[in-house]
UniProtKB/TrEMBL annotation:
Biased composition (Basic residues): 20-31
Signal peptide: none
Keyword Methyltransferase on entry: yes
S-adenosyl-L-methionine keyword on record: yes
InterPro entries (alphabetical): MeTrfase_RsmB-F_NOP2_cat, MeTrfase_RsmB-F_NOP2_dom, NusB-like_sf, NusB_RsmB_TIM44, RCMT, RsmB/NOL1/NOP2-like_CS, SAM-dependent_MTases_sf
Residue stretches in coiled coil: none
Annotated region (Disordered), positions in chain: 1-34
Residue numbers binding S-adenosyl-L-methionine: C305, A306, G307, P308, G309, G310, K311, E330, D356, D373
Molecular functions per Gene Ontology: methyltransferase activity
Domain SAM-dependent MTase RsmB/NOP-type: 202-488
Protein name: RsmB/NOP family class I SAM-dependent RNA methyltransferase
Cross-referenced PROSITE patterns: NOL1_NOP2_SUN (PS01153), SAM_MT_RSMB_NOP (PS51686)
């Protein structure tokens, strides 16, 4: 990486040696103004870039510390909201902003120092993605650059951002995105800030024309609502609906949504573990498996990939109401610890085990219902993890493929004849959904897909079945996938 920033495109590098000009009197030095909100946003972006940190894990402790400070650096709610918007918005829109910045800098962006690029992206987001007036966005970002990069680089930032400020987002997109007619996927990748291969994979899975994929990509750039689950027998939706800013869920009878500003940590039932934070798509997967029709006993349930325990806690509460026991198994011991925490206080019997689901510690045919919510690329949860789309690579699919197949094979071996397996992913990528199910069913002939759609009552636009794919733009959920499979012999 270069140690010096690039020169703004059209800049004056090498054209006007200052020695030939009369010297201007030097401006008196002015200390840079420290803006704690933008400094914190910059620190969070650096952690994401440098340490491969997750924004949703890095930001909360930084905000907590800023709220605990005394004096002018102490954050109030509006400061925290602005810092969050700056970090999430900058990361989500990075693809679009990179295309714009590339047009304003005279060298490839990869040759611009990463901290300088982070400041430029923060500035581009304020200029093109927020209502902050242009002059304020430029001057605040240049002051930030003076504090975190030094005066020399701040001049570069100033010059680049002045170019960015010459147009609005639509104007820039018209200039930098290839026309849809020439290259639909590249066009959508720039307009909606997704890597091209992700646009392509989402479109393959969604099908249809331009409108649907555009709505999906736009939904990925929206901040998702916080959804709570009232764990049955432990909390009620009425109790959660009494909270300020709470509205009923769309599909799950146990879901309550918190609108902007709702703090799950402030809800007593959440603090006591009787309710939890859980996307409605994740709730629907657990409910569909629990409601799948079954002949014979219904006493032993397995969650074979349970960490950190969202679905296990809902399954555990439902199992308790039916007199069934839940075994929640998770390979990584520390995540098994999280499952134990999520299940603590469950009203019925349960067991948490740290075990490899591809080499089960139980006998074949032990369970009546089995869920395997397998590790995956997470391309269905891009709303929540703003940096994830830039980290994932197509090669990651090959890494997950054998594990996904191994876990489904073992799930089918663990369920009794007549029992039901739910195969779930929080990715809609066909290589992680239908391809896995089809491959495994070729090897395990005594198993049939069953229609999952009637088990999500009231949920529209579930496709042709028998499996189910949820979508952020159609259902307001993460893009969860579920196939239900019955062992027949
Ligand atoms: C998508 S997450 C499951 C999310 C969980 N069902 C929930 O709702 O909270 C997949 C989990 O599978 C675990 N895992 C990975 N390999 C495994 C294996 N061989 N056996 C069991 N669990 C495994 C991962 O550690 C991860 O916690």
């Amino acid at each position: 990486m270069s140690d010096t920033p690039g020169t703004p495109r059209g800049g004056s590098r090498g054209t006007s040696p200052s020695s030939r000009r009369p010297r201007r009197p030097a401006k008196p030095y002015r200390r840079p103004q420290k803006d704690p909100v933008r400094i914190l946003a910059f620190e969070a972006l650096r952690a994401v870039e440098e340490r491969d940190a997750y924004a949703n894990l890095v930001l909360p402790p930084l905000l907590r510390k800023a709220r605990e400070k005394e004096g002018p650096e102490k954050f109030d709610g509006r400061d925290a909201a602005l810092a969050t918007e700056l970090v999430y918005g900058t990361l989500r829109r990075q693809g679009t902003y990179d295309a714009v910045l590339s047009a304003c800098v005279d060298r490839p962006l990869r040759e611009v120092d990463p901290p300088v690029l982070d400041v430029l992206s923060l500035g581009a987001h304020q200029l093109l993605g927020t209502r902050i007036p242009s002059h304020a966005a430029v001057s605040a970002t240049v002051e930030l650059a003076r504090v975190v990069l030094g005066d020399g680089r701040a001049k570069f930032v100033n010059a680049v951002l002045r170019k960015v400020a010459q147009d609005d987002l639509d104007g820039w997109i018209a200039r930098v995105a290839p026309p849809y007619e020439d290259d639909p996927e590249d066009h959508l990748a720039v307009v909606h800030s997704h890597p091209r291969w992700v646009v392509s994979a989402l479109w393959d899975s969604l099908g249809g024309g331009r409108e649907g994929i555009e709505r999906l990509l736009a939904a990925d750039n929206e901040r998702p609502e916080v959804t709570l689950v009232a764990r049955p027998g432990r909390a009620t939706t009425e109790e959660l609906l009494a909270e300020e800013a709470a509205v009923a869920g769309r599909w799950s009878p146990y879901a309550v949504r918190l609108s902007e500003g709702g703090e799950p940590g402030a809800v007593p039932a959440v603090r006591e573990g009787r309710a939890g934070v859980q996307d409605e798509g994740s709730q629907l997967v657990a409910l569909a498996l629990a409601d799948a029709p079954l002949d014979g006993p219904d006493a032993k349930w397995l969650d074979g990939c349970a960490g950190p325990g969202g679905k296990a806690a809902l399954l555990g509460a439902l199992a308790a109401q039916r007199g069934a026991v839940l075994v929640a198994s998770e390979k990584q011991p520390h995540r098994a610890g999280l499952v134990a925490k999520a299940l603590a206080g469950n009203p019925g019997p349960y067991q948490v085990v740290a075990a490899d689901g591809t080499r089960p510690a139980w006998r074949p045919g032990t369970f009546d219902r089995v869920l395997v919510d397998v590790p995956c690329t997470g391309l269905g949860a891009l709303r929540r993890r703003p940096e994830a789309r830039w980290r994932r690579r197509p090669e990651d699919l090959d890494g997950f493929a054998p594990l996904q197949r191994g876990l489904l094979r073992m799930a089918l071996e663990s369920v009794r004849v007549g029992g039901v397996v739910g195969y779930a992913t929080c990715s809609p990528h066909l290589a992680e959904t239908r391809a896995v199910v089809a491959d495994v069913l070729k090897q395990v002939p005594d198993a049939d897909l069953i229609d999952a759609r009637p088990l999500l009552p009231g949920v529209p636009e579930l496709g042709e079945g028998p499996d189910v794919q949820l979508w952020p733009h159609l259902h307001g959920t993460d893009a969860m996938y579920l196939a239900l499979i019955r062992r027949t012999a």
